[in-house]
Specification:
Chain lengths: 447, 331
């Protein structure tokens, strides 16, 4: 069974909601849309207080090339343009829309009919990218990188294959798993479209072996697509990391920055993104809803929802039986890389793959003791770094040493801290070091 | 709703702990401990218990009264050091000498450097080597196996290592016929010449412990395997060149080689971090051990070889980096 070659850990999977079909979440009363919910420049609001919008109306336009527009997920009236605390914990500008009814833009094809690429010979690569860009698509795995940017390789780089990330290596999350089980045909069309957009004729879909039903179904459905190969992967975290996935699927390692995946010929997109590409291109539907796993051991009914963007997380938690009384921590995303939330009114955004509720006991970190130099962090690091050393030099503010030891290669997957028997806050320190060193490098380059 | 905890990811932990790792090493030592009780009886029990109790007491006392810090004995590392020190001693060693060994191991070997994680040398070996130099007579007379009721009154005999040294000194390969067979040395079922320290009596019991630690991922294979292979190859070459040097199987199963390779050299704190570094460290220990055994003043070279390489660990760590992601040549 294929997997990436360096490091990795295997956290308890806890896929509590794997058997729960996707439920359509109720509309919120007020939907909130932060303007910066992707990597790159924040979007610029194009509506004003009092404006009427429909489902699918653009409410904010892309703020640059690396940016994405934002579309209303509801119909109603713009209440105000204010700020909201988002998943990052910072207060960000946001558009508030009071929901009135559920009226969609007429351009959106709401039928369930499957449209295949063969049905649309008019779709040129340029047109596909254009449609993706106009739908405000960003990577749905959590990083939220605007999709059209990745589909336009920089000069000199040539795409050789598309790799679809259907690994879902984060414990607890099941959104991608359910999507494959329920929308396999659409996902495959989406993959086909991405391949057309970057002009390659090889596509891979990497799925971890802990989802045998999805591997089976996708393999059956992919019979109709000779250029798309389903690749079962050994369950290991962080296989969903872009570089780890490329290594696992095509055995190529992306060199250290500034190299990017396209440097080894790979274009990686999340499976949720492939589905969104299908909807954007074939159904003219901008990105305004997504699948969200709401889960946790104390939660009455862990579930998967198809939720409109802007829905407060509290509403989804309520639909799962309410916030348990022993809640200690609420995480936006999975337990390995997700962000602890300050409150549960945070709106669902393009990158919200899950909401994880941890109880008091799970929320507490273990007692820190001295490093016993057991080297487990070194074995676990998927980038071949020495986390114990990076954490120490960062804590001592020795930035030259941190840079020399390749701290900027850290992908912040947390495997080191997960595995440390002394419960040392390795990644906390490494993050400080990485950010500082990247700042130093930027300053040096602009001189 | 109460207050929500805010912290950075990761939000889950493997559940591993220092205590758990130490406990796994102690469990791995159980087969060898049982075998030493079977071979040396009361003496083995007295030595092991004294050593463990003294090490734990000294660590507790030093953290409590000198460092005035929170005692760390619960992490079991002091108990492990005590057990390993006991394994390195003869079963007829008087209690007061064992206590001095424990004081040196914990007090000088570990706590003066700052406690667990900071010591440069393996504490148990610091204790053992201190005793070996300070009490050369008591530390080099080894009771014969099988005297279950005896302690300091046990009859002593020649160890396989002293037989090998005699053969080399006299240049007489026929002395080696006094050695037990390789199979007896592996199992620890000596019919003659079965003398030695507690933990070195049965190589098989130690190998079972090795398997346990590999299974529990307490250690990786790199250090023990590189030491064992190096010793086998080097001792084998010597044996082929001149038969006064014992055959490599007997070399492997004699003395503290297995104990050292599996339990002492793999001490987390004093061994290198990267697998490449661990291989270099292991090969060097194996080489030094054979050199000291065959050409040095002491019959046993394992302790010295490990201590010497402990000193090189920071240097090895500095130069042996794990292979970075992306360094692999594109196929």
């Amino acid at each position: 069974m294929k997997t990436f070659r360096i490091g990795g850990v295997h956290p308890e999977e806890n896929k509590l909601s794997a058997d729960q079909p996707i439920k359509v979440a109720a509309l919120p009363e007020v939907a909130v849309f932060p303007l910066g919910q992707h990597i790159g420049a924040p979007a610029k609001a194009v509506v004003a207080k009092g404006d009427k919008v429909k489902v699918g109306t653009m409410i904010a336009e892309a703020g640059g090339f690396v940016s994405a527009g934002i579309y209303s997920s509801v119909s109603g009236t713009v209440q105000k343009i204010d700020t909201v605390i988002d998943a990052s914990g910072y207060r960000k500008p946001a558009i508030y829309i009071k929901v009135e009814g559920d009226e969609w833009e007429e351009t959106i094809d709401r039928s369930e009919d499957l449209v295949k690429a063969a049905d649309r010979p008019d779709l040129t690569p340029e047109l596909i990218v254009e449609k993706i860009k106009n739908a405000g698509l960003v990577g749905m795995g959590g990083a939220c990188f605007p999709v059209h940017v990745k589909l336009c390789p920089p000069p000199g780089a040539k795409a050789e294959c598309v790799i679809i990330n259907a690994v879902e290596c984060e414990p607890y999350l099941t959104a991608d798993h359910r999507l494959m089980l329920e929308k396999a045909d659409q996902v495959l069309v989406g993959v086909d479209l991405i391949m057309k957009a970057v002009k390659v004729n090889k596509g891979y879909i990497g799925i971890e072996e802990n989802k045998p039903d999805a591997i089976k179904l996708m393999t059956e459905k992919a019979q109709a697509y000779p250029n798309i190969e389903i690749v079962p992967l050994k369950t290991k975290y962080p296989q969903g990391g872009e570089k780890q996935l490329i290594d696992a699927v095509i055995r190529r390692q992306v060199p250290a920055p500034p190299a990017i995946p396209i440097s080894v010929g790979a274009v990686v997109q999340n499976v949720g993104t492939a589905y969104a590409v299908y909807e954007a291109v074939m159904k003219n539907k901008p990105l305004f809803e997504r699948i969200v796993t709401v889960t946790g051991k104390s939660l009455a009914q862990p579930s998967n929802f198809l939720a409109r963007m802007g829905t407060p997380m509290s509403q989804l938690i309520e639909a799962c039986g309410g916030l348990p009384s022993d809640t200690g921590k609420v995480i936006g995303g999975g337990p390995m890389m997700g962000k602890a939330l300050m409150n549960i009114e945070v709106p669902i955004c393009k990158g919200s793959s899950g909401v994880l509720i941890m109880n008091d006991k799970e929320a507490k970190r273990g007692k820190v003791s001295s490093c016993i130099r057991c080297a487990k962090c070194v074995s676990a690091c998927p980038m071949g770094l020495e986390p114990f050393l990076l954490a120490t030099v960062s804590a001592k503010a020795n930035w030259e040493k941190a840079e020399a030891e390749d701290i900027t290669s850290c992908i912040e997957c947390g495997s080191c801290q997960f595995t440390c028997p002394s419960h040392r806050p390795l990644l906390d320190n490494i993050r400080i070091g990485k950010q500082t060193v990247m700042g130093i490098i930027r300053a040096r380059n602009t001189k | 709703m109460g207050k929500l905890t805010i912290s950075l990811s990761p939000h889950v932990h493997s559940g591993d702990s220092v205590q758990n790792n130490m406990l796994n090493v102690i469990i791995a030592l159980v087969p060898a401990a049982l075998f030493s009780l079977y071979a040396f009886g009361v003496g083995a029990a007295v030595v092991m218990l004294t050593s463990v109790a003294a090490c734990v007491f000294f660590e507790w006392a030093i953290t409590r009264f000198i460092l005035k810090a929170e005692p760390t004995v619960c992490d079991l590392s002091a108990a492990l050091t005590g057990l390993l020190l006991g394994f390195n001693l003869p079963s007829n060693l008087p209690i007061w000498i064992i206590i001095i060994g424990a004081l040196v191991a914990i007090g000088i070997g570990k706590m003066t450097f700052g406690g667990l994680g900071c010591n440069i040398f393996n504490p148990a070996l610091v204790g053992r080597v201190f005793l070996l130099i300070s009490f050369p007579v008591q530390m080099t007379t080894w009771p014969e196996a099988g005297q279950l009721g005896a302690y300091t009154d046990a009859t002593t005999g020649a160890t396989p290592l002293s037989v090998m040294t005699t053969a080399i000194k006299n240049g007489d390969a026929s002395v080696l016929s006094q050695l037990p067979s390789s199979m007896d040395m592996l199992l620890g079922t000596y019919s003659q010449g079965g003398a030695g320290c507690l933990g070195e009596i049965s190589a098989l019991a130690l190998l079972i412990g090795f398997a346990w630690m590999l299974l529990k991922k307490t250690i990786t294979w790199h250090i023990p395997v590189s030491i064992i292979c190096t010793v086998f190859v080097f001792a084998g070459l010597l044996h082929v060149a001149n038969p006064v040097y014992a055959n490599p199987f007997q070399v492997l199963f004699s003395g503290g080689l297995m104990l050292g390779a599996i339990f002492m050299a793999t001490d987390y704190v004093s061994s290198p971090m990267s697998s490449k570094g661990q291989l270099i460290y292991g090969v060097a220990i194996g080489f030094l051990t054979v050199v000291i055994r065959n050409f040095g003043a002491y019959p046993e070279g394992m302790s010295f070889a490990i201590l010497i390489m402990n000193a090189f660990t920071p240097l090895i760590n500095n130069y042996c980096k794990p292979k970075r992601f992306g360094e692999v040549v594109k196929k």
